[in-house]
Amino acid sequence: LAAGLQFMGVKSVIGTLWSVLDNVAQDLVSAFYKEFCKDGTMDCTMAARALHKAVASLLEDKVRLEARAMFIHIG
Predict the structure, then answer these.
(1) What is the rounded distance in angstroms from the CA atom of residue 64 to the CA atom of residue 1?
(2) pLDDT for 1-23, tens place per residue?
């Protein structure tokens, strides 16, 4: 799905390598957008950094490695 969005012209896509638990996805998305929109704007050049910080926040919440490692940024 993420690669398909890239082929359609989307500059920056966050995806997963395999299925994800709903609660982990919810925590990741919340942390991602908190970081991604922290200055009041959305800049796709900051998506990879925001994802990195969001995944790191999952580590603080003691989420297992295989649940954190599945998130990828393309673009």
Answers:
(1) 24
(2) 788 888 898 888 999 999 999 99
If you count them, how many residues does the chain have? 75
pLDDT digits (tens, 9 = 90+) for 29-69: 999 999 999 989 888 889 999 999 999 998 887 888 888 88
The whole domain housing 66 covers 2-74
**Helical spans, DSSP H, in 11-46:** 22-36
Token duo for residue 18: 């395999």
Q: Domain tally for the chain?
A: 1
Closest by CA to 47, choosing from 25, 74, 16, is 74
DSSP 30: H
Q: Where are the strands (E) in 1-75, listed by range?
A: 13-16, 71-74
Residue 15 Cα distances to 20, 36, 39, 47, 53, angstroms: 10, 16, 23, 12, 15
